[in-house]
Amino acid sequence: MYLSIHSKQYITLLLFMGSIFLPASYAINECHEKKANAMLEKKGEVYFMFQKPETGLYQLSNRISIDKILDRNVYAYANEASFSYFIGLNIPFEVLDHPGDVDFDLNMKTWEDLLMRDLTESWDFYPTYEAYVSLMYYFEDTFPDLAEIVKIGESVLGRDLLFAKISPQVNERRPVPQFMYTSTMHGDETAGFILSLRLIHHLLTNYGEDDAITDLMNNVEIWICPNENPDGTYRFNNSTLAGATRGNINGVDLNRNYPNPVNDPLQVQQPETTAMINFTDTMNFIMSANMHGGIELVNFPFDSWTSNQNKHADHDWWEFVMYEYVDTVHAHSPAGYMTGMGDGVTHGGDWYVIYGSRQDYFNYYKSCREFTLELSNQKLLNPALLPAHWDYNYRSLLNYIRQSTYGLHGTVYDNETGEPLLAEIYIPGHDSDNSQVYTALPHGNYNRPILEGTYDIRYSAEIHNTVTITGVDLFNYHTKNIHIALGAESSGEIFEISLSIEGEGGKVLPYSGTGYFNDGANVFLNAIPDSGYQFLKWTENGEIVMDDDEPAGAHYAFMAEDARELTAHFDSISFYVAFNVSDNLGNSIHNATITLGDIENAPGNYIFWNVDPGTYTYKVERSCYLSDNGQLFAGNGNVYIDITLNNLPGDVNDDGQVNVSDVVLMIDYFMNQEPNNFCFINGDINGDGLINVMDVIKTTNLIFGREMYSPKTP
Q: Helix 358-365 to helix 271-280 angle, to the nearest 10 degrees?
């Protein structure tokens, strides 16, 4: 149990600190105090340095905002109230230039400026606030199937707190890990602001183009908030970052403002903090990171204790993942980059203990693995250096997201109904301080990153029996899917069930690939064909276990009692298109030639087999008749088309015209000349079954317009 410091003990300790920090030979530098007051009046916070005391720093850090400790020097921020308290301790200090006050061009860009830039390469700028908001919604408008911008709340001054949700089928909740990056909760630490925007752009523009990015996005739901403290970043107006502050507009350090297991923050919870807490309460983030600046290192939990006092249950996993991040950075950056605290990796409390950090809130209260990423020694980074810092870090940023796909994954569901359950996944002898994970509804999926090893795993849910799986082997950079059914018939032994697909055009839900199910679990499978395809059968070792003729068809359920290898078979749907060709009297016409799309059948063949779904043009031709053409759609079953071909009276030579040549040919015919290619149906205009003088007269009248032809009707 971790006890808070009682108020009387706290005051006594601080008074004692005041007596030991300042020997009689030291006096407060009045010049620095005046400089501090001027900075407080202008910016609402002061940046200063003092020497690290031998004792009492933990307690002091609950009143001022410690930025970093280098050697024996403590760098800190304070608002008016906390600095007044600090002054009362009579500790020698030196006021430093504020990191948000810079003497270089920030290369601020409006939205109109950004529209003229090539964002695939040029990220050496900072956006105005309006340009930042417009850029976020530009991502949504340009990639509507991949990106959604979600406003989770507003800052004290009413600026938007925005997330980009990045996911295929972005409007759906998929059964994949949820991952979060945020940046700039300290408003003057801006490298992550631009790297986050660029990461959004990089993911969206490379989906479907880069296999690794496509696979990552297919398997993770990614949320990115580029600026968690816009009031601090745009401290004086929306057009510039000049004068940016660490705290929000109230002078509160948002990274000391979260509930804490040792000491809750002294300052009232800020709107930015409340918005983040309320939003994440609706999510099930598996992993996350928040981006900072002022030093170059990765800082992993806990912040509230040293590693000697209390380690995270996954401390060894954290070291493994943090060194993966830093080692990759070192391979793509100049010597000396990201080497803070020696090698660029530190346990939070071993550097210095703080209370109220977001990192500890998410790890301790939300079962989410979050670390703090310090990207640059310079807080408000010169924009000319932003492209280089992207190049140093983007591979590691992607690698860290990918870690959420490894470890232990699966689903938990009710064995009788198959309904997903809200369940706890706990590792006995390993988990502590809320490091266990939980399933997420509506799919009942869970994701547990963990270092390779052999573990027992306990699954529990309300009003269900608890199931414990023993001796599960897990490996780094691998995923093991274990699906657990909770119910009276299920137990802790697991069997490997392999699910594969034969042919294209379908998927199996809710599982895919190779997974494990506990003994007695009812396994519910659903083979879903894509549009234009059909499910054929389930097979095992080449033998049909269920096909589409059975009542359940694609829905297959069985009890897990042994290992199985099942295959769902799909095939494209084979439609046929059939034509019925007749004349205007309803008499069938034989030996017409029909073309469907690029396929021409032999004369008299009126059926096209195995037609793929789609829209086709057709043409029907027969000597002595006018051709017919049109368009049809095949895709919802077999297609039947009735075609009526009309003839052209008088056109006995079938040249598409009625003229003197036809009259001559008709005379030859009834004079028993028997000309070749004579269209009898067109010559027998009066319909008496003969070619005679009356037909010649009618044809002549047609030529000279003295008679109109009326088609014969049935």
A: 30
For the chain, the structural domain boundaries read 7-95, 108-403, 408-568, 575-645, 650-714
Angle at 440 (CA atoms; ends 434, 446), nearest 5 degrees: 70
Name the nearest CA neighbour of 601 among 587, 615, 624, 622. 622
CB 618 within 8 A of CB 594: yes
Inter-residue contact 62 to 355 (CB < 8 Å): yes
Q: Residue 675 in contact with residue 681, Cβ under 8 Å?
A: no
Question: What span, in angstroms and rounded, lies between the C-alpha atoms of 650 and 474?
Answer: 86
* Phi-psi sector, 197: left (phi>0), alpha (psi -120 to 50), beta: alpha
User: pTM of the prediction?
Assistant: 0.81
Q: How far apart are CA 85 and CA 76, in angstroms?
A: 14
Candidates 3.30.70.2750, 3.30.499.10, 3.40.50.2300, 3.40.630.10; CATH matching 108-403:
3.40.630.10
Sequence-ordered list of residues with C-beta below 8 angstroms from that of 62, at least 6 positions apart, any chain: 256, 263, 266, 355, 356
Contact yes or no for 651/679 (Cβ under 8 A): yes
**Mean local confidence (pLDDT), 557-577:** 90
Rounded to whole angstroms, how far apart are CA atoms 514 and 478?
12
Per-residue pLDDT, 611: 86
Please tell me the predicted confidence (pLDDT) of residue 547: 66
Average pLDDT along the chain: 91
Token digits for 188? 């003057």
Instruction: In whole angstroms, give the CA distance from residue 540 to residue 32.
Output: 80
Q: Does domain 408-568 have CATH number 2.60.40.1120?
A: yes
What pLDDT was estimated at residue 489? 81
Average pLDDT of the residues in 247-254: 97
pLDDT of the residue at 78: 96
Residues whose CB falls within 8 Å of the CB of residue 625, separated by 6 or more in sequence, listed in order: 583, 589, 592, 645, 646, 647
CATH of 650-714, one of 1.10.10.10, 1.10.1330.10, 3.40.395.10, 3.40.50.360: 1.10.1330.10
Q: pLDDT class for 550, splitting at 50, 70, 90?
A: low
Domain 575-645 homologous superfamily, CATH: Carboxypeptidase-like, regulatory domain (2.60.40.1120)
Highest mean pLDDT among 50-64, 335-349, 570-584, 639-653: 335-349
Using N-to-C axis directions, what is the helix angle for 660-670 and 693-703, rounded to 10°?
180
Q: For 521-532, what is each residue's pLDDT tens digit?
A: 999 999 998 877
Structure confidence by residue, pLDDT tens digits, 339-393: 999 999 999 999 999 999 999 999 999 999 999 999 999 999 999 999 999 999 9
Peptide bond preceding 302: is omega within 30 degrees of 0, i.e. cis?
Answer: yes
pLDDT above 60: residue 583: yes
pLDDT of residue 258: 97
Rg of the chain over Cα atoms, rounded to whole angstroms, equals: 38
Q: Do domains 575-645 and 650-714 have the same CATH topology?
A: no
Q: What is the mean pLDDT of the segment spanning 278-292? A: 98
Residue with tokens 């699906």: 483
Residues whose CB falls within 8 Å of the CB of residue 375, separated by 6 or more in sequence, listed in order: 189, 191, 192, 195, 291, 292, 293, 296, 381, 389, 393
> Looking at the predicted structure, is the pLDDT value of residue 2 above 60?
no
Cα separation, 314 vs 77, in Å, equals 32
Residue with tokens 């916070």: 45
Kindly give, in sequence order, each residue whose CB lies less than 8 Å from that of residue 158, ignoring residues fewer than 6 positions away: none
